[in-house]
Amino acid sequence: MAVIEVALAGRAYEVVIEEGVLGRLPAAADAFLRSYAGGRAVPFVADSNTHRLFAAGIDADLAEQGFVADWFVVEPGEDAKTWPVLERLTDWLLAGGVTRSDHVFALGGGVVGDLVGFACAITKRGCGFVQIPTTLLAQVDSSVGGKTAINTKSGKNLIGAFHQPALVLIDPLVLATLPDREMRAGFAEVIKYGLLGDTAFFDWLELNGDKVLAREPAALEHAIATSIAMKARIVAEDERETLDRRALLNLGHTFGHALEAETGFSDRLLHGEAVALGMVLAARYSARRGELSDSDSGRAAQAIAAAGLPARLPSLGLTCDGARLVDHMRHDKKAEASTLPFLLLKGLGAAYVARDVDLADIAAFLDDELVRSAV
Ligand code: GLY
């Protein structure tokens, strides 16, 4: 078990990482259930998968303590992060009599967490929420740090708010039912922490990544706790991403976003897979600039390939050129600029924000990468 504090003044909260914590939810979330002691139903939001897997157990555990859960269930996938679903959810919360001292429970992956967090940011000008992330990606990244958002026709996550949860409950046991591909996609974000700021953790992942992917309890808990401890530190230092600290968490994301856009934000390339390949590209581009050794760039790519994640651009079968991928990056930032901030590496465990990157050079680099044969 590990308990990590996100030390934000006046809004500090705990991230509890414990096998089986979902099975003792009433005790673990005791302080956040008290406002429902008068008999009002406790609002839970889930997708249809997490509802099917976990709702009956939660209902029974709550009933033993005299609570009743009311469930708002969304379809799995990004379509739940839309205005119509947000409207239905906020109407549902208001109809249930939600107050500012209540907490809404979000049980699911990043989609559910982002949707519920944003709904809670704006309902009654801000009510509380508890994150219970059920994917590895949500457990090591999106459930912590208070970035909440929905998608609109202008792009992903462009409408949202910083709104911190009051508690995050991470039960590694729920990952037993996670498909292997999603497990690997979440593992990409774990590798990210090693690459961006913790060489020893990266070394450990090289040796123990297979145990994490096999969901061996001790390895899995260590990977989650180390990731969250770093994220908690960074969020406490730079909650709103204004100091070039939190931006480090976007390692691999600018390249990755272009790949997701080119593949239509579809199952063809999951977000974590795009981040994985994006980190390889960031490492290789850093080596091209002479800031990272070829051997360290190779180690980064090897760790990603060893996890069964995409590590070579040709593996995606894209038919576009580098300029088109750069256009996706520009579109993301709503700018026709010749440069964008890029997360690059000065070493394994030493990411930094580069502000002198020429996008024409990125396009030329990507043209080379699109035909590269070896990892
Ligand atoms: N996922 C990146 C962040 O929370 O800042």
Report on the structure:
This protein is of the alpha/beta class and 375 residues long. It has 2 domains: 2-177, 3-Layer(aba) Sandwich (Rossmann fold); 180-370, Dehydroquinate synthase-like, alpha domain, CATH 1.20.1090.10. It has 14 helices and 11 strands. The chain has helices spanning 25-28, 30-33, 48-64, 83-95, 110-122, 136-142, 180-197, 199-213, 217-237, 253-262, 271-288, 294-306, 322-333, 359-370, and strands spanning 2-6, 13-17, 42-47, 69-74, 103-108, 128-133, 147-152, 155-162, 167-170, 342-347, 350-354. Helix 6 (136-142) packs parallel to helix 9 (217-237), helix 7 (180-197) runs antiparallel to helix 8 (199-213) and helix 8 (199-213) crosses helix 9. The longest helix is centred in the middle third of the chain and has 21 residues, at 217-237. The protein is globular. The mean pLDDT is 96. Bound molecules: glycine. Glycine binds at residues 141, 145, 147, 246, 249.
Topology:
Layout: E1 2-6, E2 13-17, H1 25-28, H2 30-33, E3 42-47, H3 48-64, E4 69-74, H4 83-95, E5 103-108, H5 110-122, E6 128-133, H6 136-142, E7 147-152, E8 155-162, E9 167-170, H7 180-197, H8 199-213, H9 217-237, H10 253-262, H11 271-288, H12 294-306, H13 322-333, E10 342-347, E11 350-354, H14 359-370
Parallel strand pairs: 2-9, 3-4, 3-5, 5-6, 6-9
Antiparallel strand pairs: 1-2, 7-8, 10-11
This protein binds glycine (GLY).
